[in-house]
Amino acid sequence: xxxxxxxxxxxxxxxxxxxxxxxxxxxxxxxxxxxxxxxxxxxxxxxxxxxxxxxxxxxxxxxxxxxxxxxxxxxxxxxxxxx
Length: 83
Prior knowledge:
- The chain is an alpha+beta fold and 83 residues long.
- Helix content is 41%, strand content 14%.
- The chain has one domain (2-7, 14-79).
- The chain is globular.
């Protein structure tokens, strides 16, 4: 199954959960695994499914991705575009 995940047999790795009570920050294996998949970003979702945090292949990329999402949200707010 690991090889199938790496080779994209099951599609894109769009996110995963951490158990209730654990941090939503990427774990020590999350960023290296994303690199193996050749993907630029993914997300960790809260156990309740209501909160999520994106992450990238490296910690500095994670911060860039989060800033980009914040900029896009603010741009929509100020443009009055809620789509």
